[in-house]
Batch of 3 targets.
Target 1
Amino acid sequence: MPKPYLFNLGLNQKKFGGNHKIVGVSINLGATKGRGSSTRMFNYCTQHSSNPSLCINEFITISPIEPTPTPIPPCPIINISTIATFDGISWILNVNTTILECQTLTIDITDTLVIINNLTLINNGTIINNGTINNGSAFFTTGTITNNGTITNNGTITNNGTVNNNVTIINNNTGIINNEFFRIINNIGTINNIGTINNVETINNVGTINNVGTINNDGTIGNQGGTITNTNIINNSNGTINNGDIINCAQGIITGSIIGNPPTNSC
């Protein structure tokens, strides 16, 4: 009986011109004795094939190696107590803080979050404000802010996402609100502007905008169904204001054109 060639399953295939690595396989052997044995398989390949290694591979079903999926890390939990310290009245932001895209920060109706001077809050996820946010520093958003309470701004708010104002935004005299390119502010509540609003994209107003500060509009203010009352300056020379009710008090100045109803000059 011919001497069988050595075959180490899962290791190496020997004596066929070197080592041939075998991993993750099953072999179609047939019977384990006699004519269907593994010896017969080896003998057949050495006698009838110029490449015994390739011949044996034809008896082997190589199990595909499934790629190991990269685990997705869980989204860290966020709430007002994980980013701020309660001083007995308000929650004071502890450090510069970024809200991740996967995170939602909800501020309860009885809570006030204060962004103190020299700190920055960046929102890349979602903020739902049912209480109060007082910004005295820098507040940036690329995500979504839904305001069901009050946002008071004495610093800078920069919108690179979407702001939905359902109740009240107060922009005080030191406050600056920047609405950047391709971004939107939807107002169905009230925006009281005493400071500066710079709009280069879209403000949809179906609520009320009271301006006693400065609005620089280089984008579009859609005012269908809303009311704008101006007692100071609206620079509209490079932008568009569409329709709605615009009340321009005696000392108010509006530059540029308005599409739709002209302002009424009374307060």
Note: The chain is about 10% helix and 40% strand.
Target 2
Amino acid sequence: MLLFVVATLALIFMPAIGHHTRMDPMISCQNNLKLIGLSFDVYAGDNNGKYPAYSDKTSNQERAAAQESLPTIYRLLSFSISSPKYLYCPSDVRTGASTFEGMQLSNLSYFASLTAARTLSNAVLCGDRNITLDGFQIRTGRCELFATTYLSWTKDMHSKSSRFECGNLLLSDGSVYACKTNASYLVSNQHLLTNILLVP
């Protein structure tokens, strides 16, 4: 009889347990950004406090490439990111690269800042690629984030996790914010007149 009761309870609760074992893509995305933030911090610790685009220890060629190429920035961080799978969000329609060497813009889900610094703890460092600035969706390339910019997201990512247009932001201090509708309050507090972003 006891065995029957245990088996019946197991049948009732197993679907609920199985449902909760899958991680919400929004949470997985935030974990990816935390790992990226830690990688930037480790890199800066080894390179006189500077991130890849402005490191004194990288060659002039690598530094110039990092200032123009988001894959180059992430390749320079690859020593502390174990796999390129952490550079794309599970709710993104894109697919990740299998190797750092073969990584293209189309394999990345996160933009990165060229001007954020370790000493500017409130600076926007990375975030979901589906951003809009002052209502305009940003496509691949370089863009400028001003202190007065209205930053929000499209529904290209995380639309299943939330009914809002939302996204995640990583600041230079390693904190990750899940933002619904807009993140202008974070942008205005970053202590940078202009933050240059590379968007995949």
Note: Residues 29 and 138 are 20 Å apart (CA to CA).
Target 3
Amino acid sequence: MPTNFNITITRVKRAIDKLSPNKAPGPDEIPNHILKRCLSTLQHHILALAQQSMSTSHFPQPFKGTITLVLRKPNKPNYTKPNAYRPIALESTVGKVLESIMANHVSYLCETFNLLPKHHFSGRPGRTTEDAMIVGKHLPSLEGWKSLLSITHGCCRSFQ
């Protein structure tokens, strides 16, 4: 399977555009809105970093670190229980950009070369939990229902 992957300024800009401007920064202490605002100055440096990371198959250690905050969920009756809290991992801003570029490419390869089963819905462009439930209704086998229940369980857990 050909995987010629050329990281371009367009891919870098797209990854930075997807960053939410008001999210808290991670260990690199670079706020997303600063990266967005300074894109014209930084884009060639980020491009060189992304290309080098790709060509050497190396993700720099400083971009792997996170800061984890544990926040109380509002209106919980008992804060002595672990599920009354939500951990939030703050990642390196530049690391998120590099990960986004790679994730988009992996997604492209999966869709282009049909690398995922046709009934796999999670994390795929243009597929929703509602689509999975509609397909699940038409899967009489136990395996089909196991797949649907797994998708539904994952979706419900993300909203707790």
Note: Residues 1-62+94-115 form one domain.
